[in-house]
Design goal:
Blueprint: H1 3-13, E1 31-34, H2 39-56, E2 59-64, E3 73-79, H3 91-99, H4 103-117, E4 127-133, H5 139-151, E5 156-163, H6 166-177, H7 184-200, E6 214-218, H8 223-232, E7 239-243, H9 255-262, E8 277-281, E9 288-293, E10 300-303, H10 305-324, E11 339-343, H11 349-357, E12 361-364, H12 369-376, E13 381-385, E14 391-395, H13 397-409, H14 415-429, H15 437-451, H16 455-459, E15 467-472, E16 481-483, E17 488-491, H17 495-503, E18 510-515, E19 522-527, H18 531-549
Parallel strand pairs: 2-4, 4-5, 6-7, 6-8, 11-12, 11-13
Antiparallel strand pairs: 1-3, 2-3, 8-9, 9-10, 13-14, 15-19, 16-17, 18-19
The structure holds 1,6-di-O-phosphono-alpha-D-glucopyranose.
The site of 1,6-di-O-phosphono-alpha-D-glucopyranose has 18 residues, from loops.
Length: 554
């Protein structure tokens, strides 16, 4: 690093410092805290994104969002060249940057890291960072902080993509690095054209009637509602009504997180919606769940991320079995083709059993798209979903090449060619960078039409075991350390044994705890044979958490 760079960094970073006494940590999906505390963190992530761009020679993304969190919170997520989450190898550097107490320490941290990973400085290479934000009021000033962070690195420039969904920004980063057109309009064009292609490939006789084509979307009063309105203009074959489009408070009694955790109707929905297919996005539109309003009740029938995954898996499996048979009846598909299903401990036990009964390979990772995505990318086709509605379908480059060839080489209009075309269209429709509620909605809708299914038929694929999720406030959530994809607590000593004793009291009981990486709480998940038992199990384990780690409030 030359002197000009050093003095630029010192001068620019002396303007902001981290909030006193706060220990910032790169969590499940980047940093999250009250928006007013994040100026220095976002500024510093601007520096990190610019350095990452220099190191990789690729475009990097920086998204300002706190997704499902309450409106006063904000956060920052970094998108790597592939469009996926920032490589985990750089997370310790992100933590060190965010927590450097002053500009001199910050400079030392940067100098040491630049040397360690050998970042090319002062060359002709230009660093480029795409910036985006959701609709939170603190987003505007935090975006300025990000711009200044990028500008603190000589040769780096930021491009402001404005208010976008998180998956749109990730998609843009991926597209730019592949040399493709990457505006918001290009995103809508890709989604709508691949959706149309899948509609055209629906077997004759299938396809739902017009009255079944109505979908009501809850936009969580976030960025997704407006974006789905834009997408809608380019679609035919689907009637979408959007509610909670920004007029009310973000994520308050609305959105995918609320609907999935509370299992009640979101604001703006009611008895008139009974029988109609409904879907909820979260605040930055990277999660999607479906639901049905129950008659005479506040409750809903939830069709969560697990069930979306089951639908996608069935469709992909159906296409693979067609491809298995060549036109002369011999096996056609490459022997090595692997379809993998990735879940977390939050997956309902009934969902996992169902997927295994289909003969699918099911594996588990800790919570967090960064873990699921990495695992799913090991397969030719990897489908990952969290029960909370975050997920996608990944296709390996090799497998896509094979599909392209099959599409060209098989007889025009044959079943094999149609199956290959469908999978190719799915790979373009569903976001390859990260879970995306907008592309998820379109894939769900077209598969339901392909199958000729109502949401009821889809929901009946299997029946969820009753479950309950709770949050417990504790003094220090980092005191909880877990193993085995978060199913076993290894610290504090003795807590797992106490949880096991509770679980033993309930037939089909399952329960785990883990520290949240996006909120300052311990999460408790319980599953049992009846709703009452699941509630009791969750409540008694919440008391154990309070006893061991306590706030004294449980
Ligand atoms: C983020 C992650 C998800 C994770 C969720 C909750 O979602 O991307 O993978 O499931 O946080 O994480 P935790 O339980 O650690 O708080 P989002 O939609 O909030 O960005």
């Amino acid at each position: 690093m030359n002197d000009q760079q050093k003095s630029l960094l010192l001068k620019a970073s002396s303007r902001t410092s981290p909030p006193q006494g706060a220990q910032l940590s790169y969590g499940t999906a980047g940093f999250r805290a009250d928006g007013s505390l994040l100026e220095s963190t976002v500024y510093r992530m601007g520096i990190l994104a610019a350095l990452r761009s220099l190191k990789t020679g690729s475009v990097i993304g920086l998204m300002i969002t706190a997704s499902h969190n309450k409106i006063c919170d904000n956060g920052v997520k970094v998108a790597d060249p592939s469009g996926g989450m920032l490589t985990q190898e750089w997370e310790p550097f992100a933590n060190a940057l965010a927590n450097s107490p002053d500009s001199h320490t910050l400079l030392q941290v940067i100098e040491a890291f630049v040397k360690m990973v050998d970042i090319p400085f002062g060359g002709t290479q230009e660093a480029q960072v795409l910036l985006g934000r959701d609709t939170r009021p603190s987003g505007e000033f935090l975006l300025e902080a990000a711009k200044q962070g990028v500008a603190s690195i000589v040769g780096a420039r930021s491009i402001d993509m404005g208010v976008v969904t998180t998956p749109q920004l990730h998609w843009m980063v991926r597209a730019r690095n592949k040399g493709m057109e990457a505006s918001e309009h290009d995103y809508y064009v890709q989604l709508s054209s691949s959706f149309r292609c899948l509609l055209e490939l629906i077997p004759q006789g299938n396809g739902t009637n017009a009255s079944n084509n109505k979908l009501i979307v809850d936009g969580a009063d976030g960025v997704g509602g407006e974006k789905i309105e834009n997408l809608k203009k380019m679609l035919s074959g689907l009637c979408i009504e959007v509610r909670n489009c920004g007029g009310g408070e973000l994520n308050e009694g609305v959105g995918a997180d609320y609907v999935q955790k509370e299992k009640v109707v979101p604001r703006g929905f009611g008895p008139a919606d009974v029988g109609i297919r409904c879907a909820s996005l979260d605040g930055d539109a990277d999660r999607l769940v479906y639901f049905l309003v129950q008659p005479n009740s506040e409750k809903i029938d939830l069709v969560d991320g697990d069930k979306i995954m089951a639908l996608f898996a069935l469709f992909v499996k159906e296409q693979l079995s067609v491809l298995d048979e060549s036109e002369d009846g011999k096996t056609n598909r490459p022997q090595c083709t692997r379809l993998g299903i990735v879940q977390t401990a939050y997956a309902n036990g009934a969902a996992t059993d169902y997927l295994k009964q289909l003969g699918l390979e099911v594996v588990f990772t800790p919570t967090g798209v960064k873990y699921l995505h990495e695992k799913a990318a090991e397969y030719d086709i990897g489908i990952y979903f969290e029960a909370n509605g975050h997920g996608t379908v990944l296709f390996s480059e090799n497998y896509l090449c094979w599909l392209e060839n099959t599409n060209k080489e098989t007889t025009e209009g044959s079943e094999q060619q149609k199956a290959a075309s469908r999978l190719l269209a799915v790979s373009k429709l569903i976001n390859q960078a990260v879970g995306d509620a907008l592309s998820g909605v379109l894939l769900v809708e077209v598969i339901l039409q392909h199958m000729g299914w109502s949401i009821h038929k889809w929901n009946d694929l299997y029946h969820d075991l009753p479950s309950r999720q709770l949050k417990v406030q504790v003094v220090d959530r980092s005191a909880v350390v877990t193993e085995n994809a978060e199913t076993v607590v290894v610290k504090p000593a003795g807590i797992q044994e106490a949880i096991d004793i509770e679980i033993g009291k309930y037939p089909k009981g399952r329960c785990f705890i883990r520290p949240s990486g996006t909120e300052d709480v311990i999460r408790v998940y319980a599953e049992a044979f009846t709703q009452e038992a699941a509630d009791d199990l969750a409540n008694s384990v919440a008391k154990i958490v309070d006893l061991f780690l306590g706030s004294g409030n449980a």
